[in-house]
UniProtKB/TrEMBL annotation:
Pfam families: Ald_Xan_dh_C, MoCoBD_1, MoCoBD_2
Superkingdom, taxonomy of origin: Bacteria
Entry annotated with the keyword Oxidoreductase: yes
Sections of the chain in a coiled coil: none
Annotated ranges, domain Aldehyde oxidase/xanthine dehydrogenase a/b hammerhead: 18-132
SUPFAM superfamilies in the record: CO dehydrogenase molybdoprotein N-domain-like, Molybdenum cofactor-binding domain
SMART domains reported in the protein's UniProt record: Ald_Xan_dh_C
The protein, known as: Xanthine dehydrogenase family protein molybdopterin-binding subunit
Keyword presence, Phosphoprotein: no
Keywords: Molybdenum, Oxidoreductase
Organism name: Mycobacterium deserti
Amino acid sequence: MAYAGTRVARVEDTRLLTGHGTFVDDIIRPGMLHACFVRSPFARARINGIDATAALRLPGVRAVFTAEDLNPDVKEAWHAVAGKDIADTPRPPLAEGEAKFVGDPVALVIAESRYIAEDAIELVDVDYDPLPAVADFTKAIGGSAAGVPVVHEAYPDNVAGGMGGAPPDEETFDSAAYVATANVYQQIYAPVPMETRGMVVEWQASSEELTVWASTQTPHELRAFAARLLGIPAQGVRVIMRDSGGGFGQKVVPMREDMCILLAARKVPAALKWIEDRRENLMSAGQARHVDGNTRMALDGDGTILAVDIDFTYDIGAYPTPYPVLTTAAVGMFFPGPYRVPKASFNYKTVFSNTAGLAAYRGPWQYETLAREVLLDIAARKMGLDPVDLRRKNLLRRDEMPYFNPNGMPYDHVAPVETFEQAVKILDHEGFRKEQAEALAEGRYIGLGFSAYIEPTGAATGHLATEGATIRMEPTGRINVYVNGGSTGNSIETTVVQLTADALGANIEDVSTIQGDTAVTPYGAGSQGSRSGPMTAGAVNEAGGILRKQLVAMAAARLEAAEDEIELGGSKAFVRDDASKSVTFADLAFRAYYEPAQLPPGMSATLEATARYTSPPTAMIHWANATHACTCEVDVETGHVTLKRYIVSEDVGPMINPNVVEGQVAGGTVQGIGGALLENMVYDDDGNPLSSTFVDYLLPTATEVPPIEFGHVEIPGPGVGGYKGVGEGGAIGATPAVINAINDALAPLGVTLTRLPATPAAIVELIEQASK
């Protein structure tokens, strides 16, 4: 039986739903101490001195560390995301000399309990000299030359860097029949995982071994980073990641607080635990999105796209996670999207501000889809076309592959027009337009929004290009598959079991997986970049092939048959033309482990295989694509938006487990809906965060999200099994689909919303402006 492609129940659900999961805060070690950060209340302030005398007098306080204590111990602090040789922005563990945003960690208190540590941070006296701050990144460019506060002295104009593609073809824009333009502003919103950041770190001085229990998406990279940071051999570091309550990109790379805990652990006599509270998470764990850009699209009289251009500014806060200049380039490179675009240009700047630093979040380049899809609807209205017709005319087809977008992105194994047409069919586009006209006649405003995108998954560059797996058959005949892990809701626990059962012909109940422990699992780059599906499939295929060959050889000897006559299935080996001649995996394993002398001379008794999968050049990128369709009703009196239907048609190749695929799409879609309507990390002019609790930072609930309808188009990718990644697409496509639906509903009133989020107040204000 083939398990891949079926809706196998998730193996982790029973553990999690019955409250038997193990999260970082469940870890207890002998004599464990607790850490709490003293954080700056100012967006920018000179730190003249720190007096910890009163805090150290509090019973139960064991230490207070400042930048002078921890920061000099840093040996290397680069991340494998781009390597050690690319210039990066500053990232000290504790603030040095100057606090640069509200929540900036300036000292670390160690105490016998979290309660004592919380009390003690109030007793640490920090002598601050408040300084002018710049919170609005759109006003930060120029720095001191423009009379604006400078965030980092090494960047006097507040620009970390930028990049430009080919210059705009102004002749095409000047001569085009139609040119649509839009300024699209996307607010800050954040990953907000259910489980905040946290780790327990235990240093054994006698053996010079470091053990880290962490909520992380990348256990092996955290291990390597910790070794580099402390200047100790990597084999002396063990990272254990059990269950994790979400990551969404925020837990890919160790952040400054993680660095502090790793450094402090060698200075205290017992294990050290830090668990971030929700206010800290919203205030300091990093911002996402926050882009302001001007976009243009040139079209001929028939609606054929001639050229696109985007010029944008990206807020990277005070201390962004690694290489913000490099990673932001994806917005410009992907801006042509899944369309037939002959000419494209982009230009951007990454800008520092006195706010929390930019961090990864599902589809970090998502702004390109938002800006382009909103612009497409504006163009359609300007031309008097239905947005469906405009997209249909310009979307790429299967027979056009391979296709290079004008920025050099090599699309292949996709057919964006097919997911689009499937979504249109599921929706019943013509039926909706009739319903819309009837509703308008009744004074009701309903709208339809589409969003189409193409995304790179499993992008195999650098350390992301390889993944390992170990498959071991135990003496009972049962099988364990060991992979790197980093499972943060993406259910690779279930999918590797399915893949391994198929690779060996085992019953699925005979297969288990061990993940997230660097002491026993092969190196892997973890859960990032929608890579887990295609890369672990490749690793399991490599290791499974080796072990399968050994099982066939053992069975052939036992059954006195030729190897090419042996089949594996149902956790046994049998002769293809005579199924009565069979031997169970349990029997083969028993002989290998307990009666190896019974094996033929020279035959290995090994029932274990470790292998690494490396993406070949033809499979460096697995392109996935989808179309989102959303309908909504807008109350023009209150500005309230009610989503009516939500459809996602996606192509992620063959699905290892449709339940997992749809769960990933649904989760990302809900986050995108939140980014369109609700979530907003607001700062005032002085850099004070105004939404650091769930009272003010609003998240989507079941009340705001309609049932999600799924459609699937299956175009195999270039890698093993044809699998593509699915982790980020929902979050990419949802926000523009919702915004386009709102704009479609309000089009009769002359309203176009391009500044997010689409709050009731913002909608009412636009309606009032349009009526003047």
